[in-house]
Specification:
268 residues, mainly alpha, 79% helix, 2 strands, flat
């Protein structure tokens, strides 16, 4: 059995174990706890094995395989790592409960579905562009999940629905602070990724990437305006939520839209 399959199966088992430990902690305590030793140990081990499996599926002797499922599982490995780091720093266990199942499912699909998308050879500059893009998308995905939680919390507090779930959320101010921390870091990475793309991609039209570039620049603009508004005008609440989700939607259209067109419609 290939190492990618073995490490992938082991990662899925450890994800389930980590989720079980986290769920028990939340039931007996609350979602405001940080990751305990059992959650951290099993979660970090799962993420490490997930990363190994995803890397081996993408990087092969004949080149880089950037099929939708393969790239997605690599992105989910990065998201899971960022979610765990966040949970180690702040009492936000509820994020892990959403991210880990998605990571496990995506990893399982990557082990079951192979890609016919042709392998690509990358220079160091293009590899840096791809890596920066994956990290930026992962952080923006985590920020969007945080924005969704913030919207849910904001709605319930506004309508005075003090359910048991809402009482387990961290304070609204802490949720907003984390959201903008994620957005600032992700925006820096996206800026570097776009710059690397313009520097190292010789012909965007020949690569079939113009619409991905346009949507990435539009998303960068939306996030720039949102971060400027936060810094200069104190934007928060629904403005922050809508801006984050709108920018991430543009990134999704740019990345997955171009992948679907190139891989399935145009056939590579």
């Amino acid at each position: 059995m290939p190492i990618s399959t073995l490490s992938g199966i082991a990662a899925i088992v450890l994800y389930i174990a980590s989720l079980s430990f986290q769920s028990h902690a939340i039931r007996t305590q609350n979602a405001r706890i940080k990751a305990g030793p059992a959650v951290a140990a099993t979660g970090l081990a799962a993420i490490a094995l997930h990363g190994i499996s995803a890397w081996l599926l993408v990087v092969r002797p004949d080149g880089y395989h950037f099929g939708i499922v393969q790239v997605s599982t690599l992105i989910l490995a990065a998201i899971a790592l960022l979610a765990m780091i966040t949970n180690l720093r702040r009492p936000l266990a509820i994020i892990v409960l959403w991210v880990f199942p998605l990571a496990a499912v995506t990893l399982m699909l990557s082990l079951l579905i192979d890609s016919d998308y042709p392998a690509q050879q990358l220079t160091s500059g293009l590899a840096a562009h791809v890596l920066l893009s994956i990290l930026a998308y992962s952080l923006f995905a985590l920020a969007s999940l945080q924005a969704a939680f913030l919207a849910f919390q904001n709605y319930n507090l506004k309508h005075q629905h003090a359910s048991a779930v809402i009482r387990r959320f961290p304070p609204l101010q802490d949720m907003e602070k984390l959201l903008f921390e994620l957005l600032w870091i992700a925006q820096v990475l996206l800026t570097l990724a776009i710059a690397a793309g313009f520097m190292f991609v010789d012909d965007l039209m020949a690569q079939g990437l113009p619409h991905k570039t346009v949507f990435s620049v539009l998303a960068w603009t939306v996030f720039s305006v949102l971060l400027w508004g936060r810094y200069r005008l104190g934007w928060r609440g629904n403005t922050a939520i809508k801006g984050t989700l709108a920018g991430f939607a543009l990134l999704l259209l740019g990345f997955y839209g171009s992948k679907i067109v190139i891989e399935f419609i145009l056939g590579g």
